[in-house]
Write a structure and sequence with these properties.
It is built from four helices and six strands. The chain has helices at about 5, 20-30, 80-95, 110-120, and strands at about 40-45, 50-55, 65-70, 100-105, 125-135, 135-145. The longest helix is centred in the middle third of the chain and has 16 residues, at about 80-95. The structure holds coenzyme A.
């Protein structure tokens, strides 16, 4: 998380530099969260954490929809780990909750993340034009969704 290449592809509000205390706080918040609304996992390789993934239930009329986010440490990119984590997490959420739709909205320029979602079976539903401001730039985002079969 102390990597701008990772943070630049995530929402704002994450601490930089990211300290061990920040990580502890995130883990504690996940552990104390409502288990029917938050599905968060460490992504591990040989018992070592190499990334993080979470699926978060939306509210109101979207209560059976959930948003997914994830990242992998840069030394581990390009080995299929994110794709595997996305597949496993979605399977878990569909089997263990009433959620019927999981979506993700990578920045349109985040080709790697779009590719992960496509490989994991997500469908590209369209581009959300001018949907975010990140580092002072107005950006398009792409809507990908996986529907429970
Ligand atoms: C996006 C991210 C999660 C991908 O993790 P990963 O473990 O490398 O992903 P995978 O290896 O499963 O798949 C990556 C795919 O994207 C492709 N890819 C990556 N960068 C690419 C680029 N610039 N152009 C084209 N393809 C690219 C890879 O070739 C691979 O596809 P392939 O298997 O068909 O060759 C990782 O780069 C990351 O953490 N980025 C920063 C945070 C982030 O973007 N999170 C997602 C927010 S929506």
């Amino acid at each position: 998380m102390n990597n701008k290449k990772i943070l630049d592809n995530l929402r704002d509000g994450l601490p930089f530099p990211y300290t061990e205390k920040d990580a502890e706080e995130y883990i504690l918040s996940v552990l104390s969260s409502d288990k029917s609304k938050t599905f968060a996992f460490a992504i591990t390789l040989d018992d070592k954490v190499i990334g993080s993934i979470g699926v978060f239930r939306c509210e109101n009329i979207h209560s059976r929809t959930a948003e997914m986010g994830y990242y992998i440490g840069e030394p581990y990119w390009g080995n299929g780990y994110a794709t595997s984590a996305v597949r496993q997490t979605c399977k878990y959420v569909f089997e263990n909750s009433d959620i019927i739709r999981i979506f993700a909205t990578p920045f349109a320029h985040n080709v790697g993340s779009c590719r992960v979602l496509e490989k994991a079976g997500f469908r590209y539903e369209g581009t959300l034009h001018c949907n975010a401001v990140k580092n002072g730039k107005i950006l398009d985002m792409k809507m990908y969704a996986l529907i429970k079969s």
